Amino acid sequence: MSSANNKGRMSRRKKMEPWYYVGPIFLLLVIMFGYPLIKSVVMAFQNYKLGNANVYFNDFANFHKMFGDKDFLLLLKNSVVYVVVSVFGQFIGGLILALCLRDKFKGRGIYQSIVFLPWAFSAFVVGLVFRWSFNGEYGVVNDVLMKLGIIKKGIAWLGTPGLSLVVVILAMIWIGIPFFGIMILAALQSIPDEIYEAADMDGCGMFRKFFSLTLPYIKPTVIMTILLRTIWIFNSFDLVVIVTQGGPANYSQTLPSYMYTKAFSGYDFGLAGAFGVLLMVILGVYAVLFLKLSNYDKAGDF
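The chain above was modelled as a monomer; its predicted structure follows.
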C-alpha cells in the first residue's frame, strides 16, 4: 500500500514538474503584461485624464470620441498603407537577400554580418538618421538628387503630405529587411539538396524550381514571419514619432502614434485606452483570418 502511495505521489510530482519551470515565467508575464493590459481596457471606459482627480466610468464616450475624430479615417488609411507597403517591401528585400546568401561565396560571413546590421539598430537611431537625411534644407538625400540633376531644388520631404509617410515607410523597410532575410535564410538552409538534384535531372528551370519547390518548403516560415511583422509594424509608433511627429497635419500619423500622442501629449489616457482596444480587436481579427486564409495548418504538406 505504501509503495502504491509513493508511486502515486511520484507520478503527480512528475506531472507537476513542468509547472515548476513555467510557473515563475507565467507569473512574471501576468504581472508585467496582464495587469497593464487589463488596466488599459478599463481606462477605455473611463474619463481618465492626467491632472484630473475626478476619474469615473463614462461608458462608450471615449469610443464615440475616437470614431468621431475628423482624422480617424485618415489615420486608418495611413495605418493600412504603412503596414501593407512596409511588410511587402521587407518581404521582397528579405527574400532576395536570403536567396543571395544561400550559396557559399568568399567573404559571405562578413557580408552577412553587415547586411543584417540594421536589425541591431534601435528605432530611435534609425529614425534620427532618416529624419536628418530627408531634411528639406540640408538633408543628404536632396543634396545627392540635386547633384545628379534629378531635382532642381530641395524637396520638403517631411513637410509635404504623402511624402512624409513615404519617408517613414522607407525607414521601416530598411530596418526590417534583415529579419525577413534571417528567417527565410534559415528555412532555405533546411531544404534537402537531394530535391534540387532530382529537379535538375528532370530538367526543371530556375523559376519552376522556385515556385514548385522552394516556395512550398518555406511557406510556413513566410506565413509566420509576415504575421509577426504585420503585428509588430501595426503596433509600432516610434519611427513615426521620431521622423515626422505625425506631421504635417496628421498625414503621416498612424493609429498607434496617434494613441501615443493622445496619451503623452494630451494626457487623455481614456481616449488612448480606446485606441488600444481598437488595435487589439483589429489585430486579433487579422491574425485569425490570415492564418485561416493562408491555410497555415496545411502549409508544408507535400
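Residues 1-43 form one domain.
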